[in-house]
Amino acid sequence: MNKFQGTGVALVTPFNKDGSVDYNGLKNLINHLIEGGIDYLVSLGTTGETATMTKEEKKKVWAYTAEINDNRLPLVAGIGGNNTMAVAEEIKNFNTTGYSAILSVSPYYNKPTQEGIYQHYKYLAEVSPLDLILYNVPGRTMSNMSPETTCRLAHGFKNIIATKEASGSFDQFNQIMRDKPEDFLLISGDDPITLPMIALGASGIISVVANALPKIFSDMVRQCLAGDFKAATPAHLSLIEFTSLAFAEGNPAGIKAALKHLGICEDQVRLPLIKASSSLEQAIVAELEKLSEPV
User: Has residue 1 got a pLDDT over 70?
Assistant: First the structure.
């Protein structure tokens, strides 16, 4: 499980001005993150605008990401949805070359019961060729996966190895930490609460902000995991404003504005998302320059 300790990054998908996938931008981003010292990569999670991509585009992005990464870091693929059988087919047909695990979001829109969520993941666990990381993000799914369901899955399936928790509930985090198997990982799904979550026992973060600021973020996480919260606190506090700005008009518009300023890729997004407003972009750039991340 050590491969998923530390800072994972939910990669944006760079697009050209015509809306096509910008593979050169994706290469720039992957190298930027690896050089910045992050610990693993997550391809085509929510931040990757997966909902607007075709099956063929996703296959090409997964293959290209594995090619550019070239086994330098552990690699996770985001494969989820609200049709269990369709998700299972996508997982079964997934080309696992270069990948270590699958991150799968709890079913959205349908609002399943806890038993429905359990049965969904049970089905996926039984067909998946790779380990699974659960993903609970009630703000997007409109359905919370309870700590009881998370731990039931963790105890029931050896290939369900972790959960990315973006519920924002410390009561929930506490219960998971108390009741989970010892080797099951609790991963933060929210950038601004990474430090306190690691203090509770979380293994790290799957981050959005670290797309732009890999070094400052991964250094902070490593200090937290070493138990040196005093050393980590200045970086944690310095990131508060940038993180707030990055999400002010939705994800990944803000972080793409930062990546454009860093010369990594364009800030193009796909409808129904739109680019960050000019005022927000200016604020993001100003905060980015304050943080003095080496370009």
Answer: no
Residue among 40, 58, 121, 164 flagged as catalytic: 164
Burial 144-155 (b: 16+ CB within 10 A, else e): bbbbebbbbbbe
**Distance, CA of 187 to chain centre:** 10
- Say how many Å lie between the first and final Cα of the chain, rounded: 32
**Is 121 tagged catalytic?**
no
The residues, any chain, with a CB within 8 Å of residue 51's CB and separated by 6 or more, are none
102 sits in which H/E element: strand 101-105
Mean pLDDT of 170-193: 98
Mean pLDDT, the chain, integer: 97
pTM, 2 dp: 0.96
pLDDT in tens, 135-154: 999 999 999 999 999 999 99
What helix, strand, coil percent values describe the chain, rounded to 5?
50, 15, 35
Retrieve residue 155's tokens.
Answer: 């105890």
Tokens representing 208 are: 């959005």
CA-wise closest residue to 195 among 170, 158, 162, 175: 170
Q: Is the pLDDT of residue 184 over 70?
A: yes
164 included as an active-site residue: yes
Token pair in block for residue 209: 């902000």
Which entry of 40, 99, 118, 135 is annotated as an active-site residue? 135
Measured distance CA(180)–CA(255) in Å, rounded: 33
